[in-house]
Amino acid sequence: MAPSSDIRWGIIGPGWIAGLFAEDLARTPGSKCVAVASRDLGRAQSFAEKHGIARAHGDYAAMAADPEVDIVYIATPHSHHHQHARLMLEGGKPLMVEKPFAMNAAEAADIIALANQRGLFVMDAMWTLCNPLFRRLAGRVQAGDIGTPRAFAASIGPMGGPKNSRVSDPELGGSFTLECMVYPMNILAGLAPNLLADPKVTASGRLTERGVDSASAIHLSNIDGHAVMSGGFVPGADGADISTFRLVGDEGWLAVTDNLFNPGRALFSSRGGELEELAEPASEQRYRWEIEEAANCLRHGRKASTLVPHELTLSVMKLLDQSLIQTRGRILP
To answer: Gfo/Idh/MocA-like oxidoreductase N-terminal domain location, by residue (predicted)?
Structure first.
């Protein structure tokens, strides 16, 4: 494709999150959605009409074979990410896969291995790692402005979790740990990978009658320090705006004070200097940053993102596996 041409996106799984993604995609220069696919053609057509998308497919194989699609965004339930990612990759499509990337580390490794074998781009849709303020904070930490990271703490929620929704259904991969703890795990990996070096993992959770972890707490510790993260679903609640995190180093600290998922404001203390308030212009287009990152990678022929590298995705999935063994007694599914 020409460097100046639009990146043409396809979406499979036209649900709520896909709708938000499509809205941001339509407002992101250099990218456009040209196709959507669902197992229900009527649902795909309705989504296409709502979002001004040219083509609707009634099966996923048609998306994999669509010559007008440059990259596919997988927004189906994560219980099906592995199956659908393989189908798209076997059809020659680069991918962005909605979080969690897969149900477990083995599935994630298989997707990445197939992408590498086919010479195709694949990226975990962890938009927090592409957020401008997060990238600014990561740069400061990597420059040594807070010294060596020693302690991390994240609190999520209470998050909305209707009883009859996907997040409560074990057949669809319902799990607070997979659905939400994947965020602080990725944030920790992006800011302080030293705290993820061979950590001891301790985790606990609250299980529903259907065996789904509706809340969990995870503690990681190693020779460098420790990390703790916790949260849970509360039916009818939407507490994303009170989800925060803090990172303490031996020469300073930082704290995101507004929104763990899409940070816009933070406090930063470096080497005994004056406390700084950092901010980036707020954007309602929270998916824009990951869309731009994937598009830039495709234009430059990259097979992986440097902001969300494969190694980071795999390390996080392995830690989630260990956490789920303790929380639910087994790796999912």
So the answer is: 7-123
Domain coverage including residue 235: 133-284+315-328
122 shares its domain with 180:
no
pLDDT in tens, 58-93: 999 999 999 999 999 999 999 999 999 999 999 999
- CB–CB of 235/162 below 8 Å? yes
Instruction: Give a yes or no: residue 232 inside a domain.
Output: yes
HSE, side-chain direction, 13 A CA sphere, residue 303: 13
CATH code assigned at 197: 3.30.360.10
Question: Does any domain span residue 333?
Answer: no
Residues 154 and 71 in one domain: no
Please state the pTM of the whole predicted model: 0.94
Residue 2 lies in a domain: no
Which residues fall within 8 angstroms of residue 319, CB to CB, at 6 or more apart? 185, 196, 199, 201, 220
**135-190 pLDDT per residue, tens:** 999 999 999 999 999 999 999 977 766 566 777 788 888 889 999 999 999 999 99
In a domain, 1, yes or no: no
Q: Give the bridge partners for 182, in sequence order.
A: none
CA nearest 35: which of 17, 6, 16, 14?
14
